[in-house]
Amino acid sequence: MTYAVRRRTISKVAESLCAVAVVLALLPLVLILGYVIAHGLTALNWAFFTQTPKPVGETGGGMANAIVGTLVLIGLAALFAVPVGCICGIHLAEYPTSRFSALVRFAADVLNGVPSIVIGIFAYGIVVLPVKRFSALAGGVALGLLMIPIVVRTTEELLRLVPPGLREGALALGATRTRAVFTVIVPSALPGIMTGVLVATARVAGETAPLLFTSFNNHFWSTSLMQPIASLTVQVFTYAISPYEDWHRQAWAGAFLLVMIILALSIVARLAIRGLERMNRP
Amino acid sequence: MQRHFDRDIEEIKDCLLRMGAMVEDAIMQSIRGLLERDTSLAEEVIANDGRIDQMELEIDRRTLELIAKMQPAAIDLRFVAAIMKITPDLERIADLAQDVCERVIELNREPQIKPMTLIPRLAQEAQAMVRQALDAFVRGDAALARSVIARDDTVDQMTEQSFRELLTYMLEDPRNISRAIRLTFIGKYFERMADGATNICEMVVYLVEGKMIKHAAAPEHE
Amino acid sequence: MSVTIDMERMAPPLEESAAKISVRNFDFYYGDAKVLHGISLEIPDRQVTALIGPSGCGKSTFIRSINRMNDIIPEARATGSIIIDGRDIYGPGTDVVALRRRVGMVFQKSNPFPKSIYDNVAYGLRIGGMRRKRDLDAVVEKSLVRAALWDEVKDRLHASAFALSGGQQQRLCIARALAVDPEIVLMDEPASALDPIATTKIEELIWELKSNYTIVIVTHNMQQAARVSDRTAFFMLGRLVESGDTRNIFMNPQEKMTEDYVTGRFG
């Protein structure tokens, strides 16, 4: 076999192997989506979106409160995690070499690796136990703790990517360092920071374990943040392990909805970035 | 660091020196033609003037090209300025030699008025000044240039003296007038050759020292 | 890092000099490395002074010392004085933020903020406390006119600054610097990233600006220095070799090193 032919053959073989690998990687995703859509789409009905769960034994009902609950929880989590995470990220970017920053970075990495159930237990300890009740607030705290490391790291990375010329330009106009950071550098990194926030949100939207002993669950509408609140994830869990056929069906619907929510978050993230990047493209 | 423009500069210098050599020859031939009353020599000088004119054009062309391509600065800039002023001065000196020869041809049709004394000395002085001006340029010798400029006064005096002498001949006998006038012209031509040499020397000083002494209030003597 | 001016503690005015900026024996260090050696230079008011020299000769470091932009580098250290209008800006009690409002800077790579054209020019004004729209509008327009950009952008002031071409962005940065009404404008190779036509526009702009501002420009393009400046200072290896009228530097320099550099024999 000539050298040229051998080269071409090796190339073709490698290409085919890559294609196979891609298929293998995508296969689970396709199957999951297919499964969820197939089972879940049929279970969706108007009642699902508008009604709360019916008592055991009765068929029908929906997950309206769980849908709202999930949104409330991730809203609370963002409220908690975004300011803390962003400020942290800004500090890390502004003082990259200090010992304190190294410590903070390490802590964020460790926090990132803590199992979500452990975070849940921690939130249980500090928010649920003192008042002796489960609450949406506790759930928000737990999810927020999960979001923080992601926001911190993303913010820091993106601020580092801002060209130093922008900082110099602001300083040369007589801005103090703080002003330069908050009026020029952070705004220019905003698209990326928002991505980080949306990615973190998408991640925690699908968490179940930490919610089990913080926001617990609620078959009814919650009226205050200090009450337990329903969430799609916990509700799906509860229904899935139950013996009832109807509840199984609703669990599929819930799973499908979860996937759609996360998909929607990702799409929104992309659109927002594109819009902001139009302002930013150098 | 050698630059490729240095070669262009050297070539322009060579052209100028070749032109200078031709001009010096022309002056020398014109003096001989005058002293030996040799019409054919004079005619040769007139015929060769065209070549000298061509050299001026060649140098102009090369120099402009150098300016366009090189954007010369400092000493290179002064070199270019000097070349652009020296070349027409040289060409005028050559024209003056030609003019001398035209008068020589006319004079040779009649017998001499008198044996010439002043005019040959004047001519030699002018020739020497032109040669030394070109030497000063080649060697970048500002001191030599200044000494040539100082000799111009002597040349002016000699011209004046010669004119007075010829005037007496004109007053003596009206038949001398046409020859005397032609001789006066010749004296004037050599005087202006000396002026041209002076101009060249002023540009040499500018090139070497960066000082412009043209039209200065008091003449600079070393 | 801003320090308010304490009038009692400020350096007293030094001996009279007609120059706007008077540099006396200025040394600059990055850590232990000495980068500028004993620079002494007079920069006259309302003229363009060009700083030329080979790469790494310290001219950029020097110009950035005039508005103390080098302060943001952690191991930077300076000795000697730079006196602007009689006050040593390296003396105790200098308000660096206020200094930077009097001494503006335009950078080699244009750096418009990711904001609209209007907001870019108004940035310096807003951080200085100007709030009223009418006032801002007036100064923004005046600055854009001064930077020869007004006609090209007056209909799209709220478009993104990045919609402009490279040459327009640089003129925007100039307008932004002019908006805070500095007395001195420093330009670090302002045209080096631009095409020839944009470069010519910037050079003509500099020529017009000098009647109102003292301009110091770093350039590696000698012909640009010759075209645009009234005075030229030649730097080499962190030292000031020669400074003087641009005419003289380019027609009859005193130092051999200067002559070698301007004729391109350097190397």
Could you characterize the architecture of this molecule?
The complex is a heterotrimer of chains A (282), B (222) and C (267). Chain A is mostly helical. Chain A has two domains: 3-43; 48-280, Orthogonal Bundle (MetI-like fold), CATH 1.10.3720. Chain A has helices spanning 3-43, 46-50, 64-94, 99-113, 116-131, 136-161, 164-172, 177-205, 209-212, 232-240, 245-280. In chain A, helix 3 (64-94) runs parallel beside helix 6, helix 6 crosses helix 8 and helix 8 (177-205) runs antiparallel to helix 11 (245-280). The mean pLDDT of chain A is 87. Chain B has 222 residues and is mainly alpha-helical. Chain B is 83% helix and 0% strand. In chain B, helix 1 (4-35) runs antiparallel to helix 2 (39-70), helix 1 (4-35) packs antiparallel against helix 4 and helix 4 (118-139) runs antiparallel to helix 5 (142-172). Chain B is elongated, with a radius of gyration of 19 Å. The relative contact order of chain B is 0.14. In chain C, the strands form two sheets. Chain C has a six-stranded mixed beta sheet, with helices on both faces. In chain C, 34% of the residues lie in helices and 24% in strands. The relative contact order of chain C is 0.17. At the B-C interface, helix 3 of B face helix 8 and helix 10 of C.
Provide a brief overview of the structure.
With 282 residues, chain A is mainly alpha-helical.
Detail the topology: elements first, then pairings:
The complex is a heterotrimer of chains A (282), B (222) and C (267).
Chain A lengths: L2 H41 L2 H5 L13 H31 L4 H15 L2 H16 L4 H26 L2 H9 L4 H29 L3 H4 L19 H9 L4 H36 L2
Helix pairs in contact in A: 1-11, 3-6, 3-8, 4-6, 5-6, 6-8, 7-8, 8-11, 10-11
Chain B lengths: L3 H32 L3 H32 L3 H34 L10 H22 L2 H31 L4 H33 L13
Helix pairs in contact in B: 1-2, 1-3, 1-4, 2-3, 3-6, 4-5, 4-6, 5-6
Chain C lengths: L20 E10 L2 E11 L4 E5 L6 H8 L9 E9 L2 E2 L7 H7 E4 L10 H11 L5 H14 L3 H4 L12 H14 L4 E5 L7 H14 L4 E5 L3 H7 L2 E6 L2 E7 H6 L4 H7 L5
Parallel strand pairs in C: 3-8, 3-9, 6-7, 7-8
Antiparallel strand pairs in C: 1-2, 1-4, 4-5, 9-10
Which structural traits does this protein have?
heterotrimer; B: 222 residues; mainly alpha; 6 helices; 83% helix; C: 267 residues; alpha/beta; six-stranded mixed sheet; four-stranded antiparallel sheet; 10 helices; disordered N terminus
